[in-house]
Amino acid sequence: MSMISNDLLKIAFVGDYLPRKCGIATFTHDLRIGVARETCAECIVVTLDDIEGGYAYDNEVQFQVADQELDEYQSAADFLNFSNVDVISLQHEFGIFGGPCGSHILALLQDVRMPVVTTLHTVLSEPNEAQRAVMMQLIRLSTRLVVMTERSRQTLLDTYSVDSDQIDVIAHGIPEAPETDQSVLKEQFGVEDKPVALTFGLLSPGKGIEHVLKAIPEIVAKFPDFIYIILGATHPSLLREQGERYRISLERMAKELGVSKHVSFYNRFVELEELTEFIGAADLYITPYLNVEQAVSGTLAYAFGCGQAVISTPYWHAEELLADGRGVLVPFADPSAIAREVIGLLSDDDRRLAMRDKAYDLGRDMTWEHVSQLYIDSFNRARDQRTSSLKPLAVRTLDEQPLALPQMQLDHLQHLSDSTGVVQHAIYSIPDHAHGYCTDDNARALILTVLLEEQGKDSTEVRSLASRYAAFLNNAFNRETGRFRNFLSFDRQWLETDGSDDSQGRALWALGTCIGRSSNANLVAWAREVFHQALPACEKTSSPRTWALAIIGIHEYLRRYSGDRVAAAMSHQLAERLADMYDATATDAWPWFEKIATYNNAKLSQSMITHGRWFDNQRVADIGMKSLRWLCEVQLSPQGRFRPIGSNGFSPEGGVAAVFDQQAIEAHAMVSASIEAFAATKDKFWSEQAHLAFDWFLGRNDLGQPIYDPSTGGCFDGLMENQVNANQGAESTLAFLLSLAEMRGLHTTLRVVANPTH
Questions:
Q1: For the range 532-536, what are the long-range contacts, defined as Cβ-Cβ under 8 Å and sequence gap of 24 or more?
Q2: DSSP structure string for 226-243
Q3: Cβ atoms of 28 and 17 closer than 8 Å
Q4: Could you tell me if 301 and 171 are in contact, meaning their C-beta atoms sit under 8 angstroms apart?
Q5: Phi/psi of residue 499, nearest 5 degrees
Q6: Is residue 393 part of a domain?
């Protein structure tokens, strides 16, 4: 084997890596080994970890990234820049990176100073808005793109308008297939003289195994000794979420179909040598996958390259690989078609053997030796395209990157939370049990847990907290009146029969957030039930802040149920009430909803922007934007710092705004509203306003003192004229934690938005 002549000295492979049980991990490992054999370059690995502490990697893994930690992607970029890496080989699949649609990887790509060759393991022809945004940035930041099928190349051209010169089509690599004696292998597995079909790979519902099981009764009517082997461990992420539920359901299905003696499960992740023996013992290989847009299947590539006769559903990779008689395609989820083709191939040895020969011949162009040479060619082209402009150690100024954010710490929130819920107040950092609990704070806390789940922070502790806060709201809801009680004493006695209007709106906001953002099916089902019962009561409320909170909650709900006309009608009604208030009060000098700006002010503007944006109501959106911009001016100190309207007097029309006491809830409201304004306009002004308001917590305020405790995540109860209120109650702590979670989301969004307007 001759090494390719090139001057690449160091290549970094970024992706999942063995011993993680994942198809991408196997691919990254095999590609790295293949390239290392073909070059003199040092081949290192930066790997993504989906479990705490990562895996027991070999020495080639030189940097590990916790997949949900955005900061670690930026640290990985620094590592690569200072390691004199010549080119990066990135393995991309939406699900292996943190952030919405895997957007965290953009943080690494935006900071590295060397060319990037990205292998796209999935290319969606109909991406949603978020997937498209991430994909367009990924394409922009990649020097070259590698796809494994012609269909994927065409999708890049048609759907994403990629320049054809940027794309390399390189088949999925396969190991060299050793010579095997099928009769010996059949005897080894105890299936001599029996027809055998095989499916292998990590087990998950999308693999469609159930449709093969349903085909077996028809097959065994013709071939009574038929055996179907399902080889592979349950996918680790599925195992963590659902245990062995899917495998157990398949076993029960086989029993119910009366085919138990014809089905064999091997629940393990097999090494290459053992896998080769399984393939050699089989007469047929079946891939009954259910996703038509599956761009590549490593298991299909390997079985095909070993010269197996393949029956497959027509997902993209199979459709291309099995063309011209190299395999058989059957419709998706069609057991009868599977049975027909299995019987047909087992009944026709000449046809099956001819199919195997065709597959084996084409497979010689798919060996890792050949594929690695093509990748090295792509690496060299990428390097040649980017040699002139990039300086690996170039200094980045603060203006070129988002400002750092504190770490998310939940210690104080957990300290305030007991089996009932979160306690309202604290004396310094000690929970003040005398004042009990309230729906307002437990609603805020539940929203925080959902945001953390959405950002990949769905730990056992967070799930436990979410359950407690949801239980509190469930108990607070009076199903006879359709409203929430608010205050609960420490001895669990409700102190009122009906809570404030604001607590109704805040609870609805929490329920809507559960429904629109959580992937916890049980939480969503509960929240949906209570949401529908609580929604009608909003019509009878009189507080504009209740209307605003309800509108925001409704639009969280509409993320998942966009066609719900009842919820949409309520949002229209409440938004019109706010618009009418604004029209009756606002002047050029006072563009506000009331004669006095009091508390939680920015939520009024945010709700109007939200409603106007999603229902294309320009009048309502304009009110939201105009009032929020005015509020930004009112809440700006002469030193250019965020100065929320003080609670000791508020801000009456024609009067002077109170400077103190400044409350954390106002900073959070401005953070949220500014982020919503940025989402609507992509105007950089609003992302800067969000940072300005958030920095109030960090000490960029009138007293120049931090309002939060970085060691616990607690937050002081406000800024008084000469000192900080040292108590760390639930409202202020949650205002800080919610602001931090939303700012983390904004940083992710800023990675996806290429060029915000100024």
A1: 533/477, 533/479, 533/482, 534/477, 534/482, 534/483, 534/484, 534/504, 534/507, 534/508, 535/508, 535/566, 535/567, 535/570, 536/482
A2: -EEEEE-PBPHHHHHHHT
A3: yes
A4: yes
A5: -80, 175
A6: no
Q: Could you tell me if 475 and 564 lie in one domain?
A: yes
**What is the pLDDT confidence band of residue 158, given thresholds at 50, 70 and 90?**
very high
Specify the CATH number for the domain of residue 415. Answer: 1.50.10.10
Range with the lowest mean pLDDT among 291-295, 306-310, 556-560? 291-295
pLDDT at 268: 82
Rounded average pLDDT over 243-261: 94
Count CB atoms within 10 A of the CB of residue 349. Answer: 10
pLDDT at 401 over 80: no
Domain ranges, residue 631: 596-752
Between the ranges 21-30, 320-329, 414-423, where is the mean pLDDT highest? Answer: 414-423
Strand, helix or coil for residue 403 = coil
3-state secondary structure of 645: coil
* Predicted confidence (pLDDT) per residue in 163-190, tens digit: 999 999 999 998 887 777 888 888 888 8
pTM for this predicted structure:
0.85
Burial class (CB in 10 A: 0-12, 13-18, 19+), 442: buried
In this structure, the answer to whether residues 464 and 569 fall within a common structural domain is yes
Question: Length of the chain in residues, anyone?
Answer: 758
Helix extents (H) in 347-392 = 349-363, 368-385
Counting the structural domains of the chain, the total is 4
The torsion defined by the Cα of 180, 182, 187 and 188, in degrees rounded to 10, comes to 30
Least confident of 11-20, 217-226, 400-409, 476-485: 400-409
CA atoms within 13 A on the CB side of 196: 26
